[in-house]
Specification:
The protein is rod-shaped. Strand 4 and strand 5 form a beta hairpin. It has two domains: 105 residues, Immunoglobulin-like (Sandwich), CATH 2.60.40.3080; 73 residues, Immunoglobulin-like, CATH 2.60.40.3080. The protein is mostly beta strands and 187 residues long.
């Protein structure tokens, strides 16, 4: 089975190279998305050595980035869209062989923190679970809205904490803050 997979991979790779080599009509531009959603690999193959200009344009046609590459026939570059707004962009390569363009859609990944607070079956015990956070601030207020607990917790991804609030009076209120927002829960 492993041998079949390797042979199939070689056949597909050879077929891709053969398809490019069989069509020497003009330059080729391919943009491939990567594992990181903010990066794209730009692959350009021209017909002759020349000075090439790589441009990235936003949806309005405004130039976002430019790079000039001299004395090459083809190249491969990784472009990183991290920090840019979501939307459609055009990647353009221009040179002596003409201009090639390809559109890409960039959607940044948002790291939304998940905060869950629940009362446990045991009297006066509460569970706080936080996912996708680096740091959490936990404030607990008693039934008279007096702050009884204030704690910053370093989190490496996810954490679960149990609070015993048997010594506070009234129904507690939790205020849990992360870099992406605050959740307030009254009991």
């Amino acid at each position: 089975m492993k041998t079949k997979s390797i042979v199939l991979a070689f056949v597909m790779a050879f077929g891709s190279v053969a398809a490019i080599a069989a069509d020497p009509v003009g330059p080729k531009l391919v943009v491939v998305s990567q594992k990181d959603p903010a990066t794209f690999k730009v692959i350009y193959e021209g017909l002759q050595t020349s000075k090439l200009t790589l441009r990235i344009l936003d949806s309005e046609g405004q130039k976002v980035a430019t790079e000039t590459i001299s004395g090459v026939e083809s190249f491969m570059r990784t472009v990183n869209f991290a920090g840019m707004t979501a939307g459609e962009y055009t990647i353009e390569v221009a040179g002596a062989n003409g201009k090639q363009t390809q559109k890409v859609s960039y959607q940044p990944v948002t790291d939304e923190s998940a905060i869950h607070i629940s009362k446990l079956a045991a009297d006066s015990k509460y569970l706080l679970a936080v996912a996708n956070a680096k740091e959490v601030n936990v404030k607990i207020y008693d039934g008279f809205n007096t702050l009884v607990h204030d704690q910053n917790v370093a989190v490496n991804g996810s954490i679960g904490l149990v609070y015993d609030l048997s010594k506070i009076s009234g129904s507690p209120k939790f205020e849990v803050s992360t870099a992406t927002g605050t959740k307030v829960v009254n009991y």
